[in-house]
Predict the 3D structure of the following.
Amino acid sequence: MPELIILLVVVGVIVLFVVGIYNGLVGRRNRIDEALAQIQVQLKRRHDLIPNLVNAVKGYMQFEQKVLTDVTNARAAAVTAGAQGVAAQAQAENMLTSTLRSLFAVVENYPELKANQNVLALQEEITTTENQISFSRQHYNASVLDYNNAIQVFPNNLLAGVFGFLKREFFEAEPEAATVPTVDLSLS
């Protein structure tokens, strides 16, 4: 009888240990999903601001249609890339950031645009959104790192594969896209 009690206690401890590991991995996976959702919110906000910016500058920039077309096409690609996975979305968003930089650089050549309050406000909102995207990416990548480490360390690695916990991808920015576009709108 004492052997049965000892066996039940050992099995109970093992079950509690497995449940603890499983629940910890589920919590980490859910943090990744929440962090990715926060990125999506900020990206949607940026996607929604871009048509307003393009419309605000369109009348001033008759000779710069290629830049406006590039921004519009990059936005469309970024909107659809979300369904293709984190890596594809990161690449499309990096391209959008690059085209926005081009647009902001062209705006610098038009003094009347630099003084337009609507354009100034939209540029400020986009810059703020870029900062929020950057912070959201950092949070997401930190969550992915924590999760990936958790599924790769012993003894979690023994259970992670059994329960279907797979390695997650980072939301990577290209080196030149990792910085927020700078805009100098001073009237000089």
